[in-house]
Structure formats: structure tokens, C-alpha cells
Amino acid sequence: MVGRRYRDVLDASNAVKRLTEIASELSILLNDTKRSFSAQQNSDPTYEYTKRAVVNAGRHLLLLHTLLPLIASTSDLLTRSFALCIAENLQRQLQTEQHHLLDKKDENVPLLLSLLSERLFQSRIELLDEIGEAIGFEVDWRSVTTLLAAQALLKPRMDVSELLKLYLESRMKIVSQVLHQPDSTLLGLVRHIKDTIQCVEQTFGRGQGFLSAIQFVTKNGWAPEEIKQLVEDQPLSTSRILEKEIVLVNGGCVENKFKLQEKSVIQRAFSEWINEVCSIARDRVKAMCNHFERVEQAVDFTVAVGHIFKTDWLTTNSFIEEDGHENNSNTYSLIYRQLFGTTLLERFNQLINEGLILLEKKLHSKLPLINCKPQMPFQRSGIAAVKFDPQLASGISTELQELVSEFSEQLLLLQKNVYKYTNVGQEENVGELYNVLAEKVLLMVERLTDFSEWEINLIKPITEQQKTTNFEEGKNSLFLFNNNNENIITTRELREKWLSIFRLLLALVQHEPSILCQCMNHNLERIVNCNKLLHNATEEALCQFMNCVINEHFRASNLYSQLLENVSSWYGWMDILQEPEHVKLSETVEILVPTQISSHFYILLTEICSELNQNSLGHLFTKNVTLHVSKQIGHLFTLILQQCLNNCASIPAICVQLIFDCKAFFQMFPDKQFLEISKQIEAKMDPIEMNILQEPLLRNAKLFAQRTAMMFGQLQSEPITAFNKESQLEESYSSLVDLIPRVQDVQRLAQIPRLSKFRDSTNQWKGEENENKNLSITKQQKRQSSKSPQRFEGAKGQQQSSSTSSFSSLYDKISTSWFKT
Fold it and tell me: Where is this chain compositionally biased, Low complexity type (predicted)?
């Protein structure tokens, strides 16, 4: 224990001894240093100044090296620019004070300062490039003012107009890059323009964002946070040097120089920028507009553009100018017009035309695929009793009505899109779209009513096929008319196509006509023109259908050849002989007066009327259509009767019948040619006999026209409805059993569809009754055939009546059994 303590005492004494030696050596060195400095001070009077200069230069160099990492850091550009300005000031001071740091044997100080100068210069270039590149991507006015303040620190001689030009040029580069990108859109371009306008307005306009930032930056003692932190981390003497440098940088940006520029200067600069952007984007805008395939796309785009500009948009204090005049409320309109010009409007006009053509093609393509014929007049509804379909009177089917309704809805949608575009579009002449739509719709109606667009052959009426009155030429014309000529003969397919076109045009006239009127932009002249086009085309289509019907039935009836054969001899006339009226002139003398037209004419008229009834068209005839049909039938009959005149035998019965036909047809289808033919036939007869027959023939002709008005009135332009009452008729006329030609298999009354079915039992006993009547009449005819021609005519008429339906059988057909469910 004693030994251990002794060792501890020895160690402690050795440590004290060593400390004493060190203190002695330090005091000696300090004394030597004091003597050396005292010697220098006594020998050089500027020593104190030099010492301070060296110390300051060292501090400047130390601060410069401290700022270099901050300049190259990832801090914001304003902090880096502020640090660069301080570093450049320190570097300039070191350049002027470098002789204090020079040593005759050391040349590293000038080299070091040169390297620092190059590095700072390179940092300045890099910072300016970064600011110019970064400012083009910024559209927030706070970020832009920060970058512009950094630019102003680096280039304090720049004024506001130069800074505005810098920003606009940077934005121009970004917009150009956006335009050249394959996935760029017009909406993206519009957003860039809008963001630029807003940023410039807030930064350089009435927002005064840049002036506020400069006032804040030029305030004495202001520095970025990182610079302030650096000041706090330095020793007192060094921090004071840094604070002085901060004040120098603050004073570098003269606040008075950055005053609010005149509005015209900013207007001019920005207008030039807008014009340049629009000129660069013109081809791109045109290409993008061509991508619109439907009207809806163009409208949606225009609405989106308007929404972009009108959302958070500065509608007041605008500084965009047009033609040197400021416009505070139409900034959006001016930019819209400069950017799009008339490109979007022209494309919209093209889309309107393409949309109407598409609607027209749909009508052309869907019409052959639907049933255009109206449904039955009566239809069952479940287990309830039959009810009348009110759409039957319209003359169109349900499918056709749906097609026209779809067409009208799409046309109405197109009109709404035009109205919407007119409200959001900013072109100067955007209001002309209503007139453009009206013109395009009118052109569409013209194409629909132009039958050459339907690729269908026009059927020439008989009045155009035969223009001469020469009998021989007329004969040749009729021969060609009955021949297999492609220009004359009509097929059922052609007839049905004309009927479908008529029903389509009729549907356009009857259903939703107000939509077409609305598309005419309240222009009365266009509305009247459109109405005339549709009505005239509808009538023309129906006339073409009637031409087909008349031509087809005339060719199928072989009327011309049969009638010429009948009138050429008495033997041929016997085939169409009909019961006449026996008019007694005295107790011993009586004359025979026809009461009905020749059966071949009657059959042809009946078949034509039956065709109309089957297609439910008679009630749809207008005055023009009826006049056309009456004219064609009348002219056809004049041609036939003219040939009968040239070929008929000089037999009184034949001539009287032909005269009656002429007079009856003149009452039904007024044509002076009938009277001329009648006079020529009368020349073949005895004048005295003809004088006696004049009054009865005219009377019976009028009566025939009157009594057949119910059947053939739809073919007549002015049907005769009343001449004489039944009480005023002659007894000889009233005694006739029937007043229609004795023709077999001719329907006197067109059967109503779905209601012409008879019960098998009824048909069976009626057939047996008719057979018994035929047998009895045949026996009676054989007994009376040798008496006289007049008796023979009566028997023949009775025989023919037995093969056809009488009034009693007609009454049996029209019975309550039709309407049983």
C-alpha cells in the first residue's frame, strides 16, 4: 500500500515538472514573437494597415469559398443568383487587394483568383440559361416574379419591357415545342395561351407582381433564408463583411428604374407575341380542325375552349389590343379570332354539309329495306274488337313514319348544335351559320326532290310520247307503246320504287314540317321555296307512279288491238255487244241508245281504280295530280278512238257506241279531241238518224258520267256529281237491270283488305244458285236466238249478267258477316 502511494506521488511530480517545462518554452516563444513584431513596427509605419488588409482579404477569400457551394447547389434560382452577386463582389475586391496576399516566391494567388473568376463567369452563364429555360415552363405569377427578380439581380440594367420580352420568348419556345409534339391538342395550346395571358396580367399588368417583388428584394438587409443562415454561422467580423455585401446587392437593383410601364407598351409586346403564336400554330390548327368528323365534336371543342377562357378569366383591365385600340371586355374574342381565324368556322360549315349528306344517304339506303305501304284499315288489338287505324289516311306506314321521325330528330339535333356553336363561337360572322344551315338544308331538299339522285328512270306520259295529230303517226306511236320498248314498258319494281319515293316525300310533307321551317332561319322565301319543292316533287312522284300504272295496265289489257278487231266488223262487235236503252219514238218506232261505255274501256278504268284502292292513294290526289291523270287517260282514249274511227265498219250500232264513248269520255276527261272524233264518226251515219240520236246520246253520256263518279271520280279533274234525279229519268232508262258493262271478272267495288273473306257455306249455296240460273238462261237463249238481233242482244246481256255479280249479290257481299271476329 505504501509503495503504491509512493509511485503515485512520483508520477504526479513528473507531470508537474513537464507542464512547467512547456510553459517555459511557450513564454520564450511569445517573447521572441513580441520582439520581432516590435522590431517590424519600429521599422515599417504602414504595418497596421497592411495587417488589416491581409486579414480582410483572407476573410473575403474565405467567404468566397463558402459561397461557391451555395451557387452550385440545388437551391432556388433567386438564392443562387443572390449568392453569385455577393461572390462576384467579393471576387472583384480580391482582384483589387490581391497584392496583399502576394508572396515573391509564390505565384498561386493570381492563379487562384483567375480560376475563381472563370468559375463565377461560368456560373453566371449557367444561371442565366437556367432562368431563361425555367421561366418558360412557369405560368404561376409568383414563380415568374421570383425568376424575373433573379434575372434582374444578375442583369440590373434590364427594364420591365426587356424582362417581359424575355418571358414571352421563353413561353414561345415552350408553345413551339408543344405544337410539334404528335400528341398535342388544340385545347392544350389554348390553355398555354390563357395561362400566359393571366401570368403576364398578374406580373406586369395591374397585378404589379414584379414591382412588388423588386421592392421587397431592394429593401436594405433583405436576403434569402440560406444567405441569412450563412451570416449567422460566420464569426462577427466575417458576418459584418457579409452583411455589407448584402446591402450592396440590394442597392444594385435600382427600384426607381422598375416603374409601372405604360399600358400601350405591354399591349404592343403581347399582341406581337399573340400574332407570332397564331402564325406558327396556323397550320397545326388547320390540321387539328380537319380531325373533327362530326358536328358534335366541333361544338364540344368550341365549348371546351370557351370554358377554358371564361374560367378564372380576367374580363376587366385587359391589355390585349386589336388594330391599335384597347378592348377591355373582348380579350377572349380577340385571341380566339387571331388563333382560329375562319378555319374552325369553315370546318364547321363542311361538317354541316357532310351531316346533311349523311342523313340523305340514310334515307336512300333504308327506304328499300322498310315497308312503306300503310297497314290494314282495321287491326285487332288483343282479344278486343277490331278498331280503325287512324294512320291509314296518312298514306304511309309505321316503319316509314319512324324513319322520317329519326331523320327529323337528327336534323333537329344538327340545328341545336348550330345554335350552340353560334352562342359559344367568337368569329365575327358566326351569326351567318343560321343562313348557312338554311342554304344547306334547302340544297338537301333539292337533292331529295331531284329524281336523278335516286337513279330511277322517268316515265314519259303519253302526251309527251305522241305530239302530232297525224293519224298514221299516232298509230305507229300506239304500236310502239304496246311493244317491248325499254323506254316505255314499266316493271313492277320501277312502279314500287316510284311509290316508295312518293310515300317518303309525303311523309316529309305531313310529319314534322316545322323542323324544316325552323332550319330556314325564319326566312319566308326559303320556307315557301322548300314547301314548293316538297309538294311539287311529291306530286311529280305520284304522277310518275300513275304513268307506270296507266302504261302497265294499258299494255296488259291489249286494249288497242282488241278494240280495233271488235269495231272492224259486226262479227267482232258481237263480242262486246251490250244492252241498250229502248227509246220509243212512236208506237211502232224505237231507237237503241247505249247507256254505258265499251267494256274494254271500262275494264281498263276499273283496273286503274282498283290499283289506286289497293295502295290507298285515291284520297291523296291533289288537283294537279288529278289533272295530270285525267289528261293522260283522256289523251290515250282519243288516240285509241281515232284509230277506231279509221278502222271501224259503217254499221250504225258500232258508230253509235263509239259516239257514245266519245261523249261520255268528254264528260269524264274533258278533251276537245273527243268532240272532233265524234263529229267524224257522225259523218258516217244517216244525218236524220243522227239528229234523232243526239239528245238521247248526250243525256245518257251525262248520266253515265254521273253514276260512275263514285268509281272513276278520282281519275277526273271535275267529276260530275249530279245532273238528274232518279225521278226525272225516262222509264226506258230506269227499266234497265244494270247500267254497267257486262264484263266478266270485274270488281265493281274494291274489296277492303282483310274484310273480303266469305264463309265457305255461304259461297257454296251461292255457287249452286248461280249454276241453276246459268242453266235456265242458256235454255231460254237457245229458244229466242232466232227471233231478232235486238232479242239476241238482250239474251246475250242476260247471259253475261249471270256470270257476274248483280246488285243482290253485291248486297250479300256487303253484310255483317264481314265484321265478325
Answer: 798-809
- β-pair partners for 378: 388
292 φψ region: left (φ > 0), alpha (ψ -120 to 50), beta (else): beta
Residues 598 and 665 reside in one and the same domain: yes
Distant-in-sequence, close-in-space partners of 658: CB < 8 Å, separation ≥ 6: 567, 641, 644, 645, 648, 681
Q: Got the DSSP string for 661-695?
A: HHHHHHHHS--HHHHHHHHHHHTTS-HHHHHHHHH
d(CA 660, CA 328): 90
Contact between residue 87 and residue 64 where contact means Cβ atoms under 8 Å apart: yes
Range of the domain at 433: 341-376+390-465+487-549
In a domain, 150, yes or no: no
State how far the Cα of 52 lies from the Cα of 56, in Å rounded to an integer.
Answer: 6
Q: Please check whether residue 143 lies inside any domain of the structure.
A: no
Mean pLDDT per 10-residue run, the chain (821 residues)?
Answer: 68 80 84 69 54 72 83 84 88 73 58 83 90 88 88 85 87 86 80 84 77 83 86 81 85 61 72 84 82 88 80 49 44 78 87 91 87 64 52 74 89 91 84 89 90 76 50 43 46 83 88 81 88 90 89 84 83 76 75 86 90 83 90 90 86 88 91 91 86 87 86 83 55 54 49 42 46 47 40 39 46 43 35
Quick one: 442 and 589 in the same domain?
Answer: no
Q: Where are the alpha helices (DSSP H) in 511-558?
A: 513-519, 524-557
Helix (H, G, I), strand (E, B) or coil at 322: strand
Rounded to whole angstroms, the Cα distance separating 616 from 598 reads 27
Is the same domain home to 426 and 529?
A: yes
If one counts the domains in the chain, the total is: 4
- Identify the helix (H) or strand (E) that includes residue 581: strand 581-584
**Which of 636, 676, 605 has the alpha carbon at shortest distance from 463?**
636
CA distance 500 to 373: 8
Using only C-alpha atoms, what is the Rg of the chain?
56
